[in-house]
Structure formats: structure tokens, C-alpha cells
Write a structure and sequence with these properties.
By secondary structure, this protein is mainly alpha-helical. The protein folds into two domains: about 1-70, no CATH class; about 70-130. It is built from five helices and three strands, in the order αααβαββα. A three-stranded antiparallel beta sheet has the order 1-3-2. A hairpin with a 5-residue loop joins strand 2 and strand 3. Helix 2 (about 30-40) packs across helix 3. The longest helix has 24 residues, at about 45-70. The termini are far apart.
């Protein structure tokens, strides 16, 4: 079993700031979880560290890579279509209420297209006649 001293954890923290943030998409809010997962891995349980890194890579893939590759007319998870203008919660609510053209898959994930989200954002604050 490998144990780290406080100074070694400081080195791990510095390594987190310089590499993990850039390479797999962890941000500052993940630092504590990263250090706990690193301690667990040193104690013989690599699961938490693997899960943390895998989730970060998957989140970045869905948020950055997939929308760029898919184009405006391909179905992608709503999490890949969020932006500074609209949150995942707002997109889910719009899809559930029928205001956003989207489909819910067998896996429970809502999927839509960039064009559908753009159309939704353009019409989001329009009043419906008669209401």
C-alpha cells in the first residue's frame, strides 16, 4: 500500500491544476473529489479515480466534440446542446412541455438537434396569441 505525505498531496494538487484540468476536463470544483479518489487509489481502490476521470472525459466529449461533429441536424443528447444562453434544466423542461422538438430515447435521455434548440431560443420569449 502506498501512502502520501502532506507535501506529496500538495504535489498531487499542483499536478491536478496543471494536467487534469486541461487533459480530461476536471475543473476546480472537482479538486477535492480528485484528491480523495487519488488517496483511495493509493489504498488499492482505483474505482473512484477511474470513475471521476471517465465522467470528466465523457462530459467534455458530449459538450464539446459531439456537437461540432454532429452538425445542426443530427440528434445529440441535450447536455451537448447547452450554452451560456440555456441550461440543461431549461432544455429538459422545454422538451417535456413540447416547446422544444426533442425525442426521449429508451435510455431516458432527451435528444434534439442544434437547429431545434436555436429555433426554441429564437421563439422562447414570444407570446402565444390568445393567452
Amino acid at each position: 500500500m502506498v501512502t502520501h505525505t502532506a507535501s506529496e498531496l500538495d504535489v498531487a494538487d499542483a499536478r491536478f491544476r496543471s494536467t487534469a484540468v486541461l487533459e480530461c476536463g476536471l475543473d476546480e470544483s472537482d479538486r477535492g473529489r480528485y484528491l480523495r479518489a487519488l488517496r483511495a487509489a493509493d489504498a488499492g481502490d482505483p474505482g473512484p479515480l477511474g470513475e471521476l476521470l471517465a465522467r470528466a472525459v465523457l462530459d467534455n466529449y458530449l459538450r464539446l466534440v459531439l456537437p461540432a461533429v454532429a452538425g445542426p441536424h443530427r440528434l445529440v443528447p441535450l447536455s451537448a446542446l447547452t450554452s451560456a444562453d440555456v441550461t440543461l434544466r431549461a432544455l429538459r423542461n422545454a422538451a417535456a412541455r413540447g416547446r422544444l422538438v426533442a425525442a426521449r430515447g429508451d435510455d431516458g435521455l432527451w435528444r434534439s438537434t442544434r437547429k431545434a434548440v436555436d429555433d426554441y431560443l429564437a421563439s422562447r420569449y414570444e407570446r402565444v396569441p390568445g393567452t
